[in-house]
Amino acid sequence: MALPKIPLAQTLIDKFTPNQVHIGHGVRDRALKYIDAYWDQLGRQHAEDHGTLVGLPYPYIVPSSNPDARFHFEEQYYWDSYFTALGLNDIKHQSLVEGMLENLLYLFKRFGVVPNASRMYFTGRSQPPLLTSFIFHVFDTYGKDKPWLEERMTVAMREYEEVWMSDAHPKWHKVYSGLSRYYDVNVLHDLAEAESGWDMTPRFERKCLDFLPVDLNALLYKYETDFARAAAILGRENEVKLWEKQAAHRKTAMDKLMWAKIRGFYFDYNFERKVLGDIWSLAGFYTMWAGMASEEQARRLVDNLARFEKSGGLTTTSRPFIDTNALFGSLKAQWAYPNGWAPLHYIVVEGLRRYGYHDEAKRIAAKWVKNNLMWFDSHGVFLEKYNVVNTRKKPVEGLYPSQTGFGWTNAVLVRFITDFNL
Fold first, then answer.
1. Inside any domain, residue 376
2. For the purposes of burial, counting CB atoms within 10 Å of the CB of 109, is it exposed (0-12), middle (13-18) or buried (19 or more)?
3. CB-CB contact of 192 with 125 (8 Å)
4. Is 230 domain-assigned?
5. How many other C-beta atoms are found inside a 10 Å radius of the C-beta of residue 177?
6. Which of 7, 64, 178, 285 could link 348 by a cystine bridge, Cβ 3.0 to 4.6 Å?
7. Is 202 within a domain?
8. Best CA proximity match to 353, nearest among 285, 412, 271
9. Does pLDDT of 275 surpass 80?
């Protein structure tokens, strides 16, 4: 049988480590200068409601700003904001980062949910919950005081209880064994999948409402341990024990339902059919980022890293899907092989660092940086996602065309270059 032809340049890249395929410091420095100037282009300030756009009290960053695009971003997005803030962690941007956090808190107070984004039509769903991580990012980076922490964690606790632990419509997230799913007020699978941020993905087989997602529940475990940390800082030892107990219950339930012992990996769980999903995805590594995995589980997860690792970084899912449209309907799955995404790379790399896998973390970060810089050197822009299998090809598009810019791409790139001295 004839082997598929692979371009020689791509073959060479696959053989070398990131440090052997050298991207000159000139390209890196030019890229960093471009990103620093680009934040102003992504900045918005809309203090009053206008049509469907929700007015926010502070300036914020949108994901992309391209006058030639088929649609334009004017709204602040929930999970984008956290990852974007990671690349703005300097004194120059302190007021912007703090303002973006305050906007999310304002949205919850106004709507009883942190919406997908600051649009009226997005208030029926949220996005992956990162409020406590954002709060602690600001607390740790800028040295905020205890009253500041207490006030904002109180709002996050309300979000946790009233949204993610709600067991009734219109915020019916907690559904099975104390664990939660993604949801939407319209009770539609595809819109619940949009709440996951992975719109669209083969993970949920186009029946997102039927699944307990491993990433969501790892994020909620992180909330519980963050609440315990906040209680310790505030001197509330009884609350520390309560939150630690809640986190332990969640881990027990997740290990029972989502941990595949033979395969050594976490998978989403279909609670309607009472079966594990069979899609290998980077969502499994959220358990390391959250500190939920045991040392042995982390070792097994890292053993499976090779399923995702390619020349340009990590694929979102482990393999291509034959005739995706036939299997999962007509919506394209952009959160899947061969695409790689900045926030998922950050989650995996930080999870590896947390458990002491520093060589693996640096290797993945270096591959992702190289991929970003190669594209920038050739095309003069950054993308919202990348093809990590063939780095010279465009990423696979989803429901909308691939966007340039791009907030969280720029931020994670800056963070990796800084953290790993790349």
1. yes
2. exposed
3. yes
4. no
5. 15
6. 285
7. no
8. 285
9. yes
